[in-house]
Amino acid sequence: MLGFTITQWLFGTLSLMAIMFALMMVFTRSPVNSALYLIMTFFCIAGHYLLLNAQFLAVVQIVVYAGAIMVLFLYIIMLMNLNADEEPRKHVLTRAIAAIIGGMLLFVMIGALRGAEQLQMVQGGASQIGLVKNLGKVLFTEFLFPFEIASVLLLAALVGAIMIGKRDTNINSKETTN
Amino acid sequence: MIAFVIYKAIMCAAVFLICLGAAAYATLWERKFAAFLQDRKGPSRAGWGGLLQPLADGVKMFMKEEIIPNVSNRALFILGPSLFMITAVVTSAVVPWAKPVNIGGHIYDMQITDINIGVIYLLGVASIGVYGIMIGGWASNNKFALLGAVRASSQMISYEIPMGIALIALIISSGGSLSLKEIVEEQDLHYANIVCQPLGFLIFFICALAETNRAPFDLPECETELVGGYHTEYSSMKLGLFLFAEYINMFISSAVIATLYFGGYNFPFAHELYAKLGLADGSVWISLIGFGALMTKIFGFICLFMWIRWTLPRFRYDQLMNLGWKTLLPLSLFNLLLTVAIEYFRGNIHF
């Protein structure tokens, strides 16, 4: 088919879809639609992981990002009842600054990508590195320390979130007792 | 290549039809069962003993007037039930329905696909399943529907966690494979997983009840408080899809429970029976008997689901959250710890 293999076709289609959904996520006015486009982008990225034979990463991407984090995002958007027409218009200066900062980030990323051709190509498709067994072995032997540190970091974030959530009630109870 | 595609297409169609048919008759069985528990007769007019009732219900749903509220978000309003139905059906892709059949030297798995992360795939689909309710409930632009959607999502997220931990304990004690086919084969060699995971099974079963939004966990559509919950604004076949997907969910979670904890298509003394009947490995008859055994187990679990629904009253919302976070989560962690300790002393885990 036009000199491309099936994998290349899939890669092209998935990449196009991922970029298209990402752009739509940025440009759409309604926050709910924006969140839904972001979920579609996550699915496309999970497809990329599947092409790299990293099924575990693909499913975890869906479970964690699409299934848990974005549900909470949607939850908040729906409860706050954000609407496109109520979105405050930003000042011109703010928008200019945002554009400049975003452009600089783009600049940095393009600069970082320029060195990419020097990297060793990892064999995709036939690689076994992304299977659960291999991933688990590597995580619990070679990268045990960073893995544990990351989990402690998550625990700290969890405790912090509970603290922030609880503070309100404490203040209220103090006010009422005073 | 072509033979492979045809075989996969036949498998997909067969599993899809089995799911739909079983779910359709589960609606009738639910009403009959409720009638039995309440000393009534249940639907008995359509067909012999009410056997055509699901068909009549389906026709009724299709023929009803379809109303899409003016103030709703039209695209998302239609997307909601479709998504709910899709996620209900795709879970069946990893369930092994029977032993592999050997036809003319080729071995055909009676499973749509055997992915090596089958168990996580189940969790992934379950976590996506909430979008159908959320999107549908929000797009209706109705306070009751929104409240139902919010309840559904928080309930599903809460109960996914003990479910996942119970699954980890199961995988540790059943040999460490995430593939459903290998989990079933393992149970064929030794014993059903329920023997070494009774607590895990209990946790998983309660979570499955909550994930399918069955009573006593049906707070998202609690009619005493929320009119109809997330499907308040829905009518005609869109409502039908929401209601029907619940039965598909119930059928497939019963299949998953039977597969994970009760040996799937295996049953006690199966090998002795096959030897007595003179059936060789890969025979079609072995597959059929195994499929019958699996369907019997599924039927048993569906009856259990219904028995619970018509016996227990609905939870209050705080009770639901307390049960999920303060009872099931610590219990599942305890179960995990216990499993790891036992497996360590049996010498199956090495540090």
- Summarize the amount of helix of chain B as a percent range: 55-70%
Structural class of chain B: mainly alpha
Determine the number of helices of chain A (DSSP H or I, runs of at least 4 residues): 6
Q: Tell me what the CATH architecture of the largest domain in chain A is.
A: Up-down Bundle
Secondary structural class of chain A: mainly alpha
- How far is the first residue's CA from the last residue's CA of chain B? 44 Å
Q: How is the main sheet of chain B built?
A: 2 strands, antiparallel
CATH superfamily of the largest domain in chain A: NADH-ubiquinone/plastoquinone oxidoreductase chain 6, subunit NuoJ
CATH classification, class level of the largest domain in chain A: Mainly Alpha
Helix and strand run of chain B: HHHEEHHHHHHHHH
**End-to-end CA span of chain A:** 78 Å
CA gyration radius of chain B, whole angstroms: 21 Å
Report strand % of chain A: under 5%
Average pLDDT of chain A: 80
Low-pLDDT segments, ≥5 res of chain B: none
String of helices and strands of chain A: HHHHHH
Please provide a written account of the structure:
The complex is a heterodimer of chains A (178) and B (351). Chain A is mainly alpha-helical. Chain A is 76% helix and 0% strand. Chain A folds into two domains: 1-88, Four Helix Bundle (Hemerythrin (Met), subunit A) (Up-down Bundle); 132-178. The longest helix of chain A has 34 residues, at 144-177. Chain A is globular, with a radius of gyration of 22 Å. Chain B starts with a helix and ends in a 6-residue tail after the last helix. In chain B, helix 1 (2-37) packs parallel to helix 11 and helix 7 (198-211) runs antiparallel to helix 12. Chain B has one domain. The longest helix of chain B is centred in the first third of the chain and has 36 residues, at 2-37. Chain B is 67% helix and 3% strand. Chain B has helices at 2-37, 53-63, 74-90, 118-139, 143-173, 180-189, 198-211, 223-226, 236-261, 270-277, 284-309, 317-345, and strands spanning 98-103, 106-110. At the A-B interface, helix 2 and helix 3 of A face helix 4 and helix 5 of B.
